[in-house]
Amino acid sequence: MTPTALLLAGILLLLVGSVLAAAAARARPVAHALFLASILAGLALAAISAVRVLGGAEPGAVRGAWAVPGGFFHLRLDALGAWFAVVVALVSAPIAVYAVAYFARAGARTFGSFSIFLASLLAALLTLSAARNALLFLAAWEVVTLAAHLLVTLEHEKDYVRFSGRLYIFANHSAAFCLIALIGILAVGADSFDLGEFGPNGAPGLCVALALVAFGTKAGVIPFHIWLPHAHPAAASPVSAMLSGIVLKAGIFGILRFLPALAHGGAGWGVLVLVLGAVAGVMGVLYALAQHELKRLLAYHSVENIGIILLGIGVGLMGAHGKLPEVAVLGFAGALLHMLNHAVFKSLLFLGAGSVLHGAGTGEIDELGGLAKRMPVTALCFLVGSVSICGLPPFNGFVSEWTIYRAMFLDARGGAGAGRLAGATGIVSLALIGGLAAACFAKAFSAVFLGEPRGHDAPEAHEARPSQRAAMAFLALLCLAVGLFPHVVLGIVWPAAVELAGGVGVRDVPAVGRLAPSYAAASGVGALFVGLALVLALVRRGLARGPRPVATWGCGYALPGPRMQYTASSFAASLLRIFKGLVHPTTRLRRAEGAFPPAPSLLTWTKDAAEAYVFRPAFVALAWPGRVTRLLHRVAVQYQVLFVIVALAALLLWKVTLG
Amino acid sequence: MRFLTDSILIGTILISVFMLSTARLGMTVRSFALQSFLLAFLPSLLHEPGFHQILILVGAILIKSYLIPRFLFRAIREVSIRRDVQPVIGFGTSLLIGALLVALAFAVSANLPLPVGVASSLLLPASLSTFLLGFLLIVSRAKALLQVVGYLVVENGIFLFGVSLVQQMPLLVEMGILLDVFVAVFVMGIVIFRINREFDHMDTANLTTLKD
Amino acid sequence: MISSILHLLLLLLAPPLMLGILQRTKALFAGRRGPPLLQVYYDLWKLLRKGAVYSRTTTWVFRAGPVVGLAAVIVAGLLVPIAGIRAPMAFQGDLILFAYLLGLARFFTVLAAMDTGSSFEGMGASREASFGSLAEPALFAGLLVLFVGSGDFSLSGILGPGLFRLWGAIGPALVLVAVSFVVLLLAENCRIPVDDPNTHLELTMIHEVMVLDHGGPDLAFILHGASIKLFLFASILVRMILPTATGFAPLEALIWAAGMGLVAVAVGCVESVMARLRLARVPTLLGGAMVLGTVAIAVLLTLESAR
Predict the structure, then answer these.
(1) Rg for chain A, CA atoms, rounded
(2) Cis peptide leading into A223, omega within 30 of 0?
């Protein structure tokens, strides 16, 4: 069986199994077993086929007729698609395991719908990875959007959930218009709907703009990210993990898939992507710092990490333009690696946030605290995720950021003209992003898990279920494994990066063997660090003589209470004050004044500039013509039909006169 | 020699950046004096030292790093204001904008055709940066006195530009500029005293409330 | 092999001496005789033998903080060449790993401080995280200049014998980087004018207030880690300012050692003659270091294109 056929088998298995599970939803154990078995088996088949392709096997192709004009059922799993399939499979499996326990208390209907929606989402994503026909790609793309929308609105009894779901589907459908237009233009240029035939054409600027809107919206690139901070907190935690971990990556995958057709759009394309990435990264992390809700904070970090991926793609394109094969491949490899790494640690963090939400009853960071004692496993896993997302060694985030840094350093040295300056800008912004992300996760982790409980519910918090803990532990181990064996992972991702670089015209790509030694050395440093830390911990243990438990030193104050702790908001305040030119937190302070003062309070919140100053006014403006046309609805039916006929006649006339 | 020139040029840029980051009026004036002092040596370093160069050297040091600062210090004493507490643009932000302007200056001058025989490739970017940073200083500060200093920094940028462009800088032009500046400082000094006497502060933002 | 062992020994044993020289300098400025040069060693020994006291609020994260911090700094130290001699671990891209290992140490120190639930330590942690994230871009800008100039991608290569020639080629840019590294050295190691290690008011401290609750061996780990960090930054700075290339290792080592002593004395002088900046002004200082780095990059690119 060729890998592509195997992938197709996996997709079918997923779909059939989940439908059966939904049908048996009332018999809960059976449904759970069916669901897990089919999803895990389907994903395993997909992963096996993808690894075979990345290992150099001939992917083979699956072709079939399709009753859509111009459409042709054509699947072929190339290296890039295989990498995407690996990401999907590796991350969805633990999420599915986690979700079973998460939805255990929910009604049979909820679980049944979840089962079908998740399977359709996964099937669509896997189809996307191998689709070679543009219309098939488009169809799978739309199924991804719809399935994700249905998953987000699973708990549709809540108003906010419905609002977020609507926002999500509006944003992504508007973006789909751009994708349709893009495919139209490219298909006319290539006179074919085959993705492989798409190439540069007469309107490169337009194509790039359309691609940025279409894929950028799905990926959550600033300023098209406005759906993201709403949809992530509204959705159930496993769904947020899917959204952030995988669905966003579909946008990135789309950009990469269409890269060969877009990359010839001039030298500025790479610089543009890089600058977009830098802006998205810095703004994303600054907004994250200003958040008070755990899942919203994580959502803005997705914006940041998509920015980092764009930095990699941008520098890769600049390398391709400047005839620097090593820069190009390293940039693309870094972007692909970060795609995987972000999927792993972000889904881990969202699952951890789900456990916190479930166990402590709230996601408001300033009401939590001290959960590490109550939820030790969740705390450890969340810590691993936090360290990884900050790009700190010896975890996986470092590997991809390191790769992107290397590409940018090399570009700053060997590139030409503006490329060098752009490379330098990228380095400085990535450094700033890294530092700010560390500050933000120091805030998030410590406010949620360390210290004393601040709110009322936190003391009664309970740990996640065993299967959920296992799912989180799996992802955490994955973070460590990628971080400790970067040379192995680099070898796996290399074919995909080379394929991408080849697609944009890079020849004479260096062999992976040239870079492997430094990656192996970094792995050695990571292992050394882990070993040294263990040795020091043992030494430390040998030295400790009867640790004595006391109260925290309050600098002389005798009655410290949990409410006196430094909160997450105060932790972030100093940084936000420094960057108040870029994010404006609004503060409302009510002092205790007068003889009978009301309860004093301090409220701070941060408006998203893109939402508040771009999209909201734009939609308000758009509502005006809408209101005018709504007047037409009030007139009698005959008139409405008349409008239709007049419009039809006008169109016919136009067609006739123009020939 | 080359190293000395480059160091003076970079020092000029850095001093302008420093002026953006400090709130103290006295420090700003001192920085300006130092900048002018350093710049005064440039003509002698770049060209064959002759009578003109010596004249510029002595004249520039005398006027820009002694007379004008002295005058400005007297103004500071008179109005007894030591700091610009509420600048129009904050120190951090103006530093950031300053960094962008310096980068812009370097990027622009990389694309400008250099006249033949320019001694240092840093001359043009340094003059442009000084020029732009001076303007930023004028824009970002609320106190009139700092705006005067900003004006003077702009003049230093022009001076640098002249040095970099003209082999034998016409003495007359430079003297004219100097005189211009001197008169401008004089007039603005009088204006500052006036504002101060009438309104007990020297915040130019309040000038807009004056009508008729 | 022998040089690796020497490197490790020097890395573990020499740093407290620098702190000793620094304190002695400050004492002399203040007209006191000051503690013996080896005082920090005595302190470490004393702390290691003491028992530990832990707050009931804390968890294992509090205990992991000092251990991870020290381990990360030591491993980072294995990447930095001493006296221009190749470090035990040197490879392409290690300079980024160096910066991120220090970031890891900072991350865990901040977490340990937050674990105590004390508002004072939270304050210090918040400041450390803020200023640390502002220092990062300046550090990377400096590293970029060194990398582009030398063409080598490892700290050992950059700070090796080739540095001497680099000064002739891009001297002005290197001056800027050196100045920004001085600022970073002071900021990252909690020295005046950014932080005052000797202030008596918790409200105004950064690093010291973060480790208020640590005692005994934990405090010893933290103290040693801090001294190694200062040692590493000083080592890079000394190499930048005194890029000798005599080819005779003992002489190189002697020059380097003298330079390290000078840096310690210089930091002591700075601490004695300057006042601590107001906390609100520290970002401006770090921003200034960032601007220095940016200007250095611009100057470098201009000089390179002119060549």
Answers:
(1) 26
(2) yes
What does the pLDDT read at residue B212?
Answer: 45
Q: How many CA atoms lie within 13 A of A163 on its CB side?
A: 8
Residues in chain A: 659
Q: Please list, residue by residue across A133-156, b when 16 or more beta carbons sit within 10 angstroms of its beta carbon and e when fewer do.
A: bbbbbbbbbbbbbbbbbbbbbbbe
Residue ranges of chain B with per-residue pLDDT less than 50? 211-212
Handedness of CA A358, A362, A366, A370 (dihedral sign): negative
Could you tell me whether strands A548-550 and C53-55 are parallel, antiparallel, or unpaired per DSSP bridges?
parallel
- In C, residues 99-118, which contact A (CB 8 Å cutoff)? 99-101, 103-104, 106-107, 110-111, 114-118
- Give which of C55, C26, C4, C24 is closest to C218, Cα–Cα: C55
Chain centre to alpha carbon of residue A257: 17
pLDDT at A9 over 90: yes
Q: Which residues of A touch C118 (CB under 8 A)?
A: 552-555, 560, 565-566
Contact A581 B90 (CB under 8 A): yes
Residue C122 forms contact with A (CB below 8 Å): yes
Q: Which two tokens stand for residue C4?
A: 């690796």
d(CA C188, CA A648) in angstroms, rounded, equals: 72
Q: What angle do CA B79, B83, B85 make, to 5 degrees?
A: 120
Confidence of residue A564 (pLDDT cuts 50, 70, 90): confident
Instruction: Please give the span between the terminal C-alpha atoms of chain C, in angstroms, as a whole number.
Output: 40
Phi and psi (nearest 5°) for A588? Answer: -125, 115
The model's confidence at residue C145, banded by pLDDT at 50, 70 and 90, is very high
> Within 10 Å of residue A445's Cβ, how many Cβ atoms?
25
- Interface predicted TM-score (ipTM) over 0.90: yes
Question: Residue A129: pLDDT band by 50, 70, 90 thresholds?
Answer: very high
Alpha-carbon gap, residue A178 to A190, rounded angstroms: 18
Work out the number of other CB atoms within 10 angstroms of the CB of residue B18: 18
Question: For the segment C167-223, what is each residue's pLDDT rounded down to a tens digit?
Answer: 888 888 898 999 999 999 999 998 888 888 777 677 778 888 898 889 889 999 999
For the purposes of burial, counting CB atoms within 10 Å of the CB of B152, is it exposed (0-12), middle (13-18) or buried (19 or more)? Answer: buried
| Interface contact C106-A521, CB threshold 8 A | no
Chains touching chain C at 3 or more Cβ pairs under 8 angstroms?
A, B
Give the residue carrying structure tokens 């008349």.
A642
Pinpoint the alpha helices (H) of A263-293: 268-289
Token code pair at residue A581: 């030119």
Task: Pick the residue from chain A with its C-alpha nearest to C131.
Answer: A575
Q: Which residue has the tokens 């590139």?
A: A415
